[in-house]
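Quick check before the chapter quiz. The format below is the same one you will see on the exam, so make sure you can read both the input and the output lines.
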Amino acid sequence: MEPCRLFQFYPLSPPHTMRYHNREVDNMTTKNEVLLEGLVLGEPEWSHENHGAQFYRVYLQVPRLSGQMDLLPVLLPGGLAAQAAEGRLLRLRGQLRSFNNRSGVGSRLVLTVYAQELQPGLDEPQNQITLSGALCKSPIFRRTPLGRSICDLMLAVPRRYGRADYLPCIAWGSLAYRCGAMEGGGRLALEGPAGGESQPPSRGGLPGSGGPGPEPYIPQNPGVRGDGGTDGL
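Here is the expected output.
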């Protein structure tokens, strides 16, 4: 997946804090929501087992307004895999997840959509991501060879078990200027579409790196990776 393409963003005030088990924690509610509708490409393939639960992967073909197709990698819990038959139109609700793939040379950030709910499609294409979290580092403002303003951001969105997802996002034009003025640790809310591959990787390959395009909301303390529980990644 490609980095998130932002439609807009909302800087947020510092969170309130409270004491829990003798340590200060952020009581801000974070958000990580994905809504997609598209065609299933191929049959689900087994991905991995985590704490006794089976997980499968598949690609969802989601059209843009321009007519171009985004191919988005989806991770399915075993209980949902039977619904994702090849060629079926599905509406998916879930979350955007990240993990470091260390199977090759070096470490590579991989993004995938974790499905939590599947329904029959309504023939109304959807590609919407809403995030809330904290900036891992100061945004990087730059210009493309054609002179367009662009800003790269890395958003940390906490989840259960003390873990966090680290999600790259991209802002263009006037949004790039606004995002470029922020600093690492700043809280942010974002919305936008997920960017996908033009074609799936070779059979057995892993989804590519990158991210979607929502309007994220960011906490001061992104959290640390820990035991992943049974939510797939």
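If your answer matched, good. The chain has one domain: 4-218.
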